[in-house]
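tool_call: predict_structure(chain=1)
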Amino acid sequence: MLQKIPHIAALRLRCPKCGQGKLFRGWFHMNSECDSCGLSFEREAGFFLGSIYVNYGVTALTTVISYLVLVMVFKLPAKPVVFGCVVFTTLFPLWFFRYARSVFLTIDHYVSPGNYHARPTGSSAAAASENEARVGQRQPQLAMVEQTAAMTPAEAAGFSEEELTMLHAEDAHAGAIVGTVVLLAVVFGLSMGSFFVFSTMR
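tool_result:
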């Protein structure tokens, strides 16, 4: 049952729950759920943005260690090593894309398995039918839920329209700040990389 061990399932690009279902149906096309146990892979919109950090971290760490070992230990010329690192940082993230998603999904599922849902299969389907039979006993609660769903976001949250608008504006402002910081970090990284490349070519 090694395929059910989390890190083994991640390396095999398999479902983190059952270790059987395939995560991908192509190089970049991911299945929405496991075809074996029905586990939903994407628990919310934009969930897999976190895998970008996994991909970036592994790529950066591998590049830095490789450069230091090749130049400092094996005394190879810096220019060809830098060229090789540039090629590596271009091609490796494309190959590692699927594994970054698999590792991120497996870690998240291991840390918080309760946030994932699966479609009913087998005995689970029988349990689902029993749950449906109980719905009739919960009509008052369902009516209350429907009434709440009909409220505006401000009414449901207990805010006035003006307060809710202010909160949205603050969220947008915070998002703009975070986006600006990330953009500046990318520009700084590219500038330092360019400076490093040109300095080694002199």
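agent: Residues 161-200 form the longest helix (40 residues). Proceeding to next step.
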